[in-house]
User: Fold these one by one.
Assistant:
Number 1:
Amino acid sequence: MKLKDKKAIVTGGTRGIGKAIVYELASEGCNVVFTFHSSHEAAKVIEADAEKFGVKILSIKADASSFKDAEKTVSFALENLGGLDILVNNAGINKDNLLLRMSEDDFDAVINANLKGVFNYTKASIKQMMNQRSGKIINISSVVALSGNAGQANYVASKAGIIGFTKAAAKEFASRNITVNAIAPGFITTDMTDRLNEKQKEAMLSLIPMKRIGLPSEVAKTVTFLASEDSSYITGEVISVNGGIYM
Ligand code: NAP
């Protein structure tokens, strides 16, 4: 087990990539607090699976865009897990539209949940990690942060902002043995991508050299790598998990 007795927070752990990350960390012996926003029932089902892994899995309702909620989540994790070794900033939303039609509210909502969310949880966690002189922060960005994408200016800006934030934070905390890295997933099968129609999915698939859509578990395994000692000398890096769609 690569993460035996480690303690982690995962934001947005109820579905898709976040849920796969919770299970993957737990399967490596890690205790996990994860947040949910609206899926209370799903969160309870995941909590109940803790027994299978012999670890603690606990959920807490929290809005990624709220700094108060981030502080509440970190306090909850410290009280219930007794420490914090790993932070995975996964929670994310999209509200796609062409710029001409994009409302100010939709721009703000996406930046606040996706980019400010990363600031909120990093800031709320960092004192603990600095005091213990160790920590692993993993931020979920996106391939579109590297390539751009029409109809997603708010989402792309938030995900590109996460890469800049990751590099700045990596430099600030490197001397404290805290690594900060990002993952840029490509097209991964989750609720977020299920909303695309068949024509959009086929168009996307035709661009992927590996000719298949990625699995949440393939992103989650990269999180484990970045959370474990296997990546001890990697910081400020962006790892693509995208089947070759962008190189
Ligand atoms: P998803 O299936 O739509 O799940 C989103 C998760 O985020 C859910 O757990 C949801 O909780 C939570 N969430 C939503 N709004 C929130 C808020 N305001 N505060 C806290 N939590 C919130 O998404 P996904 O596809 O797994 O994506 C996960 C991450 O990967 C996101 O950052 C996304 O941008 C990124 N990503 C995804 C893809 C892809 O192809 N799927 C590609 C690149 C990057 P509730 O269930 O409680 O609402």
Number 2:
Amino acid sequence: MDLKIAVLPGDGIGVEVVAAGMKVLDAAVKKSGHKVHAQYADVGWAAIDKHGSALPQATREICRANDAILFGAVGLPDRDVTLPQAQRPERVALLELRKGLFANLRHVVLPRGLASRCPLKPELISAGIDIMIIRELTGGLYYGQPQGIQGAAPNRAAVDTMAYSEAEVRRIIRVGFETARKRRKKLTSVDKANILATSQLWRETAVAMGKEYPDIKLDHMYVDNASMQLLRRPSDFDVIVTENTFGDILSDEASMLAGSIGLVPSACLGEKDARSGGPVPFYEPIHGSAPDIAGQNKANPVGTILTVAMMLTYTFGLLHEAEAITNATFGVLNEGKVLTGDLGGSASCSAVADAVISRL
Ligand code: IPM
Ligand code: MG
């Protein structure tokens, strides 16, 4: 198989972690005779400096021409503030490339060998942590209209709109049920149905769909309670499905349970894949560009390496290769000898990639 991938390293540590991820990808698929065809493109400040736009036309075209996008990070806080919000890389590039990709899967796993990196007490995590958060990514507060600031200071007013159609809710909850079916068969639907109309629709839809999935244990949780239960009994969660903003917040909270945000991969998927005319699936580690450690070969590449494994699973269907990468990566983490600074080690980014490759 030819794996056609648009590779967008972007800003800060995006460059190093993507290089590490690509090296592992190459090594993993070569063994079974597959070939990676990577087309690199500029995005973020790296693109503004060269082409005057965070998402140049050439980059869009390269993305469109491939079956998956591997993305590092965009944004440099010191420079972002010099631009109006609507022109910042996260708006212009990130949200743009995610268009149409309504299902954002963020996988939080605490490696057995790194339990001491988890901020929770040992007795709370003895059963392990493995949570798949499914965040709705194309609706809710991010996109609802009207949105904006009106009037003149000091009497301005601002509005954001949380809006969901039943069809939007149904398709993301379906991803939740289907994902739970392949895992521990437990789905927690998170909403704020005691207050919000969108959440009432969400909950009614989830309850109705539960009848189609009698094998899945469905429960419902208000988002405030969910944020507490994640810290109180994280092992009880299997799959969480929730709307855009709740998922944004809960996934950052949950990433700390893994010991470092540098460990968490993600996939943004649409209804159809790129080969059947859908939007191009987008894969990224959930961390940002970390300019303070950029260019020093210090960043943790595990989030990106596990992201590459998600790409093999969801876009290319190379489950065996994906599993090989995941097992090799957790092997390295559990052994605890080759770890980056965020995990208390002193290994370089490239050394972690090499350690994973040597276990493949
Ligand atoms: C994320 C980020 C983005 C989001 C920002 C940078 C727009 O927080 O990927 O979680 O809110 O989706
Ligand atoms: Mg976020």
